[in-house]
Give the backbone structure.
Amino acid sequence: MIPLRDNIPSRTVPFVNYLLIALNTLVFLFELKIASIPIGGGHSALDGFIYNFGIVPERLFGAFFSQAHTIFTSMFIHGGWMHFLGNMLYLYIFGDNVEDNFGHVKYFFVYILCGVAAAGLQSFISPASQLPTVGASGAIAGVLGAYVILYPRARIQTLIFFIFIIRIIEIPALFYLGFWFVIQAMSGTMTLASSAAAGGQEIGGVAFWAHVGGFIAGIIFVQLLVRRRRARMF
């Protein structure tokens, strides 16, 4: 399922959301530029960039949190075109309305803090991992968590693929984002089970627990910061 748009017009210009998209884009363009620069050992400058600025849990928890800055830098790094485009699509569709409710300044800090929560849960689940974790999806998951509480009845225009059939249908936000969250939690659990079955061997791929942590953080921030405001219902 690919979301195309929602049916909620934003009351304000979401310039913080645009700024976040722009920052992610600039960093991704930089990644493309250095991807072809060799640094020896069969690695590129991009590999070094990801390792130095992505979150490596084992390194994060060592040396008195000397690598704490990677919690923030990792939010603006992506592992490829699909990773980047998918994240920016979700941020563009859902971020403007969440910013509308929180206000510009609060939205920025909520976004960052959801990213921190996402990185924290992922690192807590795999504290000895030596694999770098990058991407804005943990912070964006926080945006999705906030959105589903603020606009549960919103309609998400969605592109559906089923074998050779392609359809565009409207799906309630509560179902769309609720289903998304369940898939992340189930996938994260399956990854842990696979790792345990492999004798604790690390399994790369999607950081599903970062998505879970960010989503839950977004829900919590809505309860804390939008408690006295009535969200519009659609």
In short: The first strand starts at residue 2 and ends at 6.
